Amino acid sequence: MRHAKSEHPVVIADQTHVLVVWKPPGWHVTVGRLFEGSFSLETSASENLAGHNDCAMHQWIQEHLGGGCAVTQSAEASHGIAHRLDRFTSGPLLCSKTFRGYYSSLLQFVSRRVQKEYVCMCSGFLHRLPRMIETELRAVRKADGSKYSEAVDSGRQACTELLAVSHFHGPDGEALSLVEVSLHTGRTHQIRIHLSSEGHPLVGDAMYGGTEVNGCPRIFLHSRRLALDIGDGPLDVNIPLPKDLRRTLGCLTPTNAESCTAVARCC
Fold first, then answer.
1. Which of 58, 125, 186, 197 is deepest in the core (most CB within 10 A)?
2. pLDDT tens across 89-105, in order?
3. CA distance linking residue 27 with residue 30, whole number of Å
4. Are 6 and 167 spatial neighbours (Cβ–Cβ below 8 Å)?
5. Neighbours of 1 (CB within 10 A)
6. Total-model pTM
């Protein structure tokens, strides 16, 4: 299924126990997690979220589903949200309508049965050959509770598959690569740190060494596909690049015909 987008969350797929919501850029996801035996809240955003409470996904879900869905009221169950997307990452967000849906979804993610594909833009000409990046990662917690990742030899397994790479020149002639990615694990900022560790940080990602490109309003990272089955039939959602990132692509110059084909495929 391919769906249109808006500046506000929209339900784009609905089943008995789960639904998929379009998460626009700028909306943050706060979920509950257990740390060293005690319960606390953490957010997917790396930035200070003060003043952004009106863009909280769990609040939107609670208002949309109402008090009849008890899982959305439970911080311990992450308000029914089964996974996270960073604040400035757009794409489909899997949410639960029941506790059964929530725990069934978690099982799918833990057992790596969920298909997750992303589109991103990085600096430089990344090698076009499809391959797997398997650099191990370690999450580091800051004093404010937010996290970032480090590429280390003694970290946790992390697998990022590069499906396709296309080359472009930016508005100022800079070399850029549009990268289509499949995630096989879900570590903190996995795509961002993996590409940065390869010497190709994402456009706009200052945390991991990325630089700004004229016309790009945010980190160029979009979740385009989410596919799973918790027992109620296959759920497969595809969302093309939203308009802000399409505008950025429109300002770039493809280096060859294959790059033009990639634009059509992603948009």
1. 58
2. 999 999 999 999 999 99
3. 10
4. no
5. 11
6. 0.90
Q: Give the C-alpha separation, 264 to 261, whole Å.
A: 5
Structural domains of the chain ordered from first start? 10-266 (3.30.2350.10)
Phi, psi of 182 (to 5 degrees): -120, 130
pLDDT, residue 30, reads 76
Contacts of 61 (CB under 8 A, 6+ apart): 9, 21, 72, 79, 80, 81, 95
Cβ atoms of 5 and 239 closer than 8 Å: yes
Report DSSP letters for 111-176, one per residue.
TT--EEEEEEEEES----S-EEE---EEEEE-TTS-EEEEE-TTSB---EEEEEEEEEE-TTS-EE
* 263, 177 contact by CB (below 8 A): no
CA 130 distance to own-chain centroid: 20
Which residues share a beta bridge with 22?
10, 92
Rounded-to-integer distance, Cα 198 and Cα 216, Å: 22
Q: Is 26 left (phi over 0), alpha (psi -120 to 50) or beta?
A: left
SS3 219: coil
> What is the Cα–Cα distance from 147 to 84, expressed in whole angstroms?
13
CA neighbor of 56 nearest in space, from 84, 98, 18:
84
The alpha-carbon radius of gyration of the chain (Å, integer) is 18
| 244 part of the active site | no
Maximum average pLDDT range among 51-55, 83-87, 149-153, 226-230: 226-230
Residue from 86, 172, 205, 232 carrying the catalytic annotation:
86
Tokens (6 digits) for 87: 């604040």
